[in-house]
């Protein structure tokens, strides 16, 4: 029987130390590589002392050494390398066979699963350097039973979150899931990290950090499909045997013994990446193999929960979107590993990235980067440009290029024949048509019949498409499933209920459909249809995206301005109100644009439900500041019935501050007189209460009169509920127009200046300007 321990010879120790020094490792690092908890065996190895023989083998393997050249008096039974069966015959302990096979295959598995080739990155990347622990949803969102009518009232901000909230409690760490379920099928959108997760598990097993008693075998299913020959049936065991031959393991009996004993961790990646022609054959072989060797642990990955791809005894789980913490960790690792900067500068860049990502204007952008694919794309763009794209449409375009083409191309995947014939421009047109048709109906969720109907309508516009209803229905169903499984742009959110996987994508494709009109007349019609939604908050992002995607946004800006002015043109009272605001703004000499003052006085009325601040009024002159302070004082003086000393003292302080910036001498004198009338700290409680009871009401009325007389502001404007609603829409629409102007849209200087100078003007002044 072979010795249970080995020790290095003096010359072997010397050679081992040379290799160890060349690696630049520490003993703690080597212990981690070998998969042992302490460095004591490492220390003993370099001291020439006896250690457990398989630890000896592992140390030599990590140091790129032949253990026979290092060991003192190596056993004869280990000098044969051409036939593992002789070793197997000698090994009575199955654990020793596992250790031996793991040792032989260690470097191959490390090469196969320890590195990643990221899109647009020219060099391989260590998996350990960029990997983020994933979370798993034990309940699949698409397996919920819901009625589409129940989803019609969701706010746009809640669309992306739908389905995740109800199953949030079932979210567990990925490692916990693989320990909990012996047979697991991992589902998820393209680019969510399924393949990387399986590679990580294989790598962890390879280093003895997970399933140390098993031999990891990682199989890409499309590679298995490529290996099939016409004259031979699909044989997964033979494929594994051929894989083992590259590691010097020639005996098929070795693999069978491991499988029969349940000592294999088999990871099968990409169940959905095999074409239909081969899929049935391969799937049947997988089922046969899994049934025969049922004792082993099996983990497979697939994009969708397709029944035809179901595996007996497997539990389906889904990779969850990244949490805030996971996004932060990913970004830090990305910049440290891939930015080329020092660790300190990389972490600074990562922090700046997160700060920009969390800005309110980027909330839709933030929702999209919850998968490794999109987050990698965002980091790459930010690193290259030193900022996020000025036009979010550019980011969406690059993302769609990835999902619709480059992603499958980079992985060498060929899809089914029906969908393969649809070119990238046709896919973009199809998705754009579906997006606009559904968005116009406020359909963020739609039944399978509805989406197939829209797909069928588009397919009939293509050449050589059958007009037979049955054939069209069949093609539409196939195309829908292809878009869902291959690109993840459409997703089944509940049984038979679909949506775009992100609301941002539906908005992007809707804007793309508007912009991609085939001629000027059609474009004009599309833009006119768009401005009909100027007061609909759900269309805000469509306006921003459309304005940034147009070669010239002049026509859209002018159409928006006309539509906004028309909102208040038919109400004489609102026109009078706008005229007052315009007059007030002209009374305050200012270096700012005229629209700034008008916006300020409109906001100052504090009509119910109106926005408290207007973006145009971000820079105020002294007169406007006085009016703002007076308005606050006026509001405070009228709202409280029971007066106390602290309340009146606060009013006195506010009035004192206002006196410091009032220029008009007459107005200043009147305010000073009112300030002198307020009771001071010399008053007793009795005299203070007496003053408040007998004098406060008259004092507040006089304050209102003086402000109205000298500054023409008071609570004189009273709007009914309809007018309040119109004003709210008017405010919001003007803000949207400004945001579009400032969204890097292509607008000529003359059009921009004309719009900015005529913002918030009454109809009479607009007409005067037109005829001037």
Question: Which terms would index this structure?
Answer:
single chain, 772 residues, alpha/beta, 14 strands, 58% helix, elongated
**Adjacency order of strands in the biggest sheet:** 6-5-11-7-10-9-8
Instruction: Classify the beta-strand content into a percent band.
Output: 5-15%
Give a quick account of the main beta sheet: strands, pairing sense, barrel closure: 7 strands, mixed
What is Rg? 36 Å
> How many angstroms separate the termini?
109 Å
What is the overall pLDDT average? 80
Q: What characteristic shape results from the CA principal axes?
A: elongated
Please mark out the parts with pLDDT under 50 across 5 or more consecutive residues, or reply none.
79-84, 86-92, 163-167, 606-622
What's the oligomerization state? single chain
* SS field, number of helical segments: 37
Helix content class? 55-70%
Structural class: alpha/beta
Let me know the number of strands. 14
Can you offer a commentary on this structure?
The chain is of the alpha/beta class and 772 residues long. It is 58% helix and 7% strand. It is built from 37 helices and 14 strands. Helix 16 (324-338) packs antiparallel against helix 17, helix 23 crosses helix 24 (469-487) and helix 27 runs parallel beside helix 35 (721-741).
Ordered list of secondary-structure elements with their pairings:
Blueprint: E1 5-6, H1 10-23, H2 27-34, H3 40-46, E2 51-52, H4 53-62, H5 67-70, H6 84-90, H7 94-113, E3 115-116, E4 125-126, H8 127-130, E5 135-137, H9 156-159, E6 171-173, H10 174-180, E7 183-187, H11 194-206, E8 215-220, H12 221-226, H13 236-245, H14 252-260, E9 264-269, H15 276-292, E10 297-302, E11 315-319, H16 324-338, H17 343-357, H18 363-368, H19 372-385, H20 392-411, H21 417-420, H22 424-439, E12 446-447, H23 448-459, H24 469-487, E13 490-494, E14 497-500, H25 503-515, H26 520-531, H27 540-549, H28 554-568, H29 572-587, H30 594-604, H31 622-639, H32 645-659, H33 665-677, H34 685-711, H35 721-741, H36 749-757, H37 763-771
Parallel strand pairs: 7-10, 7-11, 8-9, 9-10
Antiparallel strand pairs: 1-2, 3-4, 5-6, 5-11, 12-14, 13-14
Helix pairs in contact: 2-4, 4-7, 7-11, 16-17, 16-19, 22-23, 22-25, 23-24, 25-27, 26-28, 27-35, 28-35, 29-30, 30-31, 31-32, 31-34, 32-33, 33-34
